[in-house]
Amino acid sequence: MVRETGEKYHSRGGMLHSLKEAGFKYGKDYEILDVPNIVNITYGRDVGYKIEHEKFSAEIESISATNIRNNMEGVYS
């Protein structure tokens, strides 16, 4: 899934090219789905769901998408 944030580094063509170069087949190994950029969840009056905080290993939690994006600058241009 690709969260559309409006940032310029996102290039669908570049993403598809990189996946093809890595040997992946579209429709067989992967699909790309655009999803909205949800930044807030609002709730009230017992709506029937709860919000939970997911915890992962320190290795996973140390991953920074901002750092990854900064390092990718120009890769998909």
Describe this structure as you would to a colleague:
It is a single chain. The chain is mostly helical. It contains 3 helices and 2 strands. It has a two-stranded parallel ribbon with strand order 1-2. Strand 1, helix 1 (12-21) and strand 2 form a beta-alpha-beta unit. The two termini are 20 Å apart.
Record keyword descriptors for this entry.
77 residues; two-stranded parallel ribbon; 29% helix
Structural class: mainly alpha
Distance between the termini: 20 Å
Average pLDDT across residues?
80
| Integer tally of domains | 1
Poorly predicted sequence stretches spanning 5 or more consecutive residues: none
Overall geometry comes to extended
Q: How much of the polypeptide forms β-strand, as a percent range?
A: 5-15%
Q: Strand order, biggest sheet?
A: 1-2
Short structural description:
With 77 residues, the protein is mainly alpha-helical.
List the helices and strands and how they pair.
Elements: E1 2-3, H1 12-21, E2 34-35, H2 58-61, H3 65-72
